[in-house]
Amino acid sequence: MVPFILLVLCFAAWGAAANMTDPLVKVFSKIFTMSSVQSALVQFSYYGAYFCLAIPAAYINKRFSYKTGVLTGLGMAAIGAFLFYPASQAMTYGFFLVALFVLAGGLSILETSANPYVMGMGTKQGATRRLNLAQSFNPVGTNIGVFLAATLILPKLNTATSGERTNMNSEQLTSIISAELDAVMVPYVGMACVLVFIWLAIAFTKTPNFCKQKKVSKHVEFSATFKRLFKNTHYRFGVIAQFFNVAAQTCVWTFTIQYVMEALDTNEVTGGSILQYSMITFLVSRFVMTWLMGFIRPAKLLMATSIIAMLLCFYMVKMPNISGVWALVSISACLSLMFPTIYAISLHGLGDDAKLGAAGLVMAILGGAIVPVFQAVFIDTYSVAFSYVVPAGCFIIVAAYAAFDLKTKVRVFNNVAPC
Asked: How do residues 307-327 score in pLDDT, each as one tens digit?
C-alpha cells in the first residue's frame, strides 16, 4: 500500500503542475502584452517536453526499473520548478518557457513510469479500473493547481491594460512586471519543495516483491519493439486517440478564462473561479466514472462521454452566455475518464512491449502542444466561442476509437473457441 500511496501523490503532483500552467497562457499574454498565439507557446513548451522525453523515459524503465523512472522524473521536475525563481529575476518570457520545458520533461518521465507501474500492481483484468483509481487523485492535484493560480497569481495581476502599459515609462512597467512575475514564481518554487519531499519518500521506501520487475537484458531492442507496436492497429489508433484527447482537454481548459471573460464580460478572477469549478467537476466525476466501470465497459463509457463532450462544445459556440459557461464546466465531467481509459485499453495485451508502448501514449500528449495553437489562431481571427469547434473535432476522433475498441473486442471474443 505504501508504494501505491506514494505513486498516488505523484499523480496529484503532475495534476497540480499541469493546471497551474493553464492560466499562465492568459497571465503571460497580459504581462508581456502578446497575442493568443504567442502566449499559447506556454502549452507548446509544456506538452512538447512530454513528447521529447517519453522515449528516454521508456529506455530508463526498460533498462532499469519503473521506480528509477519515477525518481528521475521527480528530480528533473523539481529542478524545472526551481528554475522559476531565476526566470522571475531575469523577467524574460523565453526563460519561463525553458523552466516549463524542464519541469514538463520531468513530469513526462514520471508519467511514463508511474502509469504502467500502477497497472502492474495487481491483476491484468483490473488494470484499467486500478489506473482510473490512481488517476482519480490526479484531479485532486488539478484543483490544487487551479486554486494556487486563482489565489496566488491571478489576483496579483495589475489591472493596467495593454494600451496603458504601452504608455508607461520603462521604470513603471518594469516594477509592475517584476511584481507579477514574483507572483508566478512563488507557487512553482513551493511545488519544487513538495516534489523533493516525494522523491525522498519514494527513494527510501522498499518496494514489495509484487511490484518488483523481472530482470531484463541490458540490450534494449527499440527497433523490433516499435515495429511490433506500429503493426498493432488497436495500439496505433489508441495513440492517435490519446493525441486528440489531450488536445481537447488542453484546449478546453487553456481558454476557459478567455471564454468566460468574453461570454460574461468579466475579469480574469471570475474566469479563474469557473476554471476551479471545472476542476471540481473533473475530480468528482473521476471517482463516479471509476465506480461506473464496475458495471459498464470502459470503452462504452468513453464513447458516450466523447459524444456528449462534442455536443457541449457545439452548444458553447452557439450560446456564448451563462448557459455556455455551464456547458464548458460540464465538459470536464466527460474528460474525467478519457486519459486513463484510452491509456489502459491501448496497452491491453502488449506484455513487455507496454514499456515502450507507454512512451508512445505519453508522446501523444504532444496534442496538447500543437492543437491549442490552432485554436489560438481561431481566437485571434474569429472569437473565443467559435474556437471551441476545435476540441469538438477532437472528441469525434476519441469517440471513433471507443467504437473501434468495442468492435475489435467483440470480433476477438467471437473468434475464440469455447473451452
From this structure: 999 999 999 999 999 999 999
